Amino acid sequence: MFCICWHYFGLLKIYMKRISISNILLVTAFMMGLAQAAEAQNAQAIPDVIENIRVSIKMANSKELTTFMGDMVEIQLPDQDRNNYSKTQAEFVLRDFMKKYPPTNFTYIHKVLDKEDFKFTIGEYVYAGGSMRITMVIKPSNSKYQIDSIVIERK
């Protein structure tokens, strides 16, 4: 709040009313609490997303898996080049892959979840004829985590 007073020479002076230090500290503590709560919410969200992706792959549910993708996703299948696919195309590509190699299990071997700008997972995709490695990069986009790329490789 400002108090406007005219100096006896006619100059305008602006005086700021006293703001107590305790009020400033209170507001600062409140803002820090909000920031920590938002960070905790994001930290809790990624394990849920990672687990839901794991279940979708294990159950060969390509439709559910694409709900964790953005509009475009980069996919590399075994013995093929990387390609960018729309969400709809990705569903069909992954569905065909999972029909050809029906999963019996999918588990994570390694997860990097502490990076702010991306998350990284390596998983083992087990099917009747053996196993493959699936590497995924997951990035925050539109206030949620989305799969940016999937690389499926023979072991």
Automatic annotation (TrEMBL):
Keywords: Signal. InterPro entries: DUF4783 (IPR031977). Residues 1-37 form the signal peptide. Pfam families: DUF4783. This is DUF4783 domain-containing protein. It comes from Cytophaga hutchinsonii (strain ATCC 33406 / DSM 1761 / CIP 103989 / NBRC 15051 / NCIMB 9469 / D465).
